Amino acid sequence: MFPETASYIGSVNRRFLLLIPCSYTLLSAADLPPDTVAAFDRYTKLTEHALDQRKGLHDYLWLDQHPKEREIIWLGQSVIVPLKTLDQGREIDVPGASLQDWMGTFLLEHATLERVRDYILNYGDYKFYFKQFFIDSKLVKREGDRFDAFLRLSRKQLTGVVLNMNVSTTYTLYDPTHAQIICRSTHIGEVAHPKEKAQGDQERPASGASGYLWRQNIYWRLLQTRDGVYVELESITLSRPAGGINPSRFLNGFVEKYPREFVDGSIEAMQKGFPRPQQPHH
Q1: Domain 34-273, CATH among 3.30.530.20, 3.40.50.620, 1.20.120.520, 3.90.1150.10
Q2: Per-residue pLDDT tens for 167-211?
Q3: Which among 197, 148, 202, 189 is positioned nearest to 171, based on CA atoms?
């Protein structure tokens, strides 16, 4: 939570779902094929359009249309589902890339929207809050409800992966109980020497990068209730297809595993930051 922080007030077929038990980046066309860029931008544009349509009292959250899952959340558990945005009922083909869209939802009991908002927007402490993902983080600039930040993502599997990420975030408060945070990557660069911490600013050229992660959009939906704050976190990622010409990507599993692990790990971190109240003993 920011210390002494001022208030931050300031027809699409959306989903095809299969239940299982936080990008419009500024990468140039030279970095990715134009048709890949266009497809990803189309996917995220339709996703955001669908979110914009859900502002009512009973259709703001995904949970509003899934009462059974809402009961699970109310009992203190979380739900993670893969999503798929459709374009007039048709799937959006993203050529030469792997796009994954995951959403997780959970309840932070007795929390307030203001505290949850401050936690998510406190980019300087991401290296502590979300330390399973980020080894460095800092807020670069803030103008009202717009935030620019730097994040250094590190994942250790069979081989280390370190990525420098610049993100741009917008906070919107619709009313005292409904808020949204949209975080879009504006640059993702692969660190050339991931084992050398002192050389973290040295990145591989785009032509020589492995394509672990090209883009990432993160959408947070917050709803204040008497029980606490319901949180929905959706992450859309774009990367080179798993395997391909570089077998190391297939072996370390980053491309296949990171998109879902990011949502799962972020939920775990948020729940640690806002632990459930202890039940009194009788």
Answers
A1: 3.30.530.20
A2: 999 999 999 999 999 999 999 999 987 777 766 678 877 766 778
A3: 148
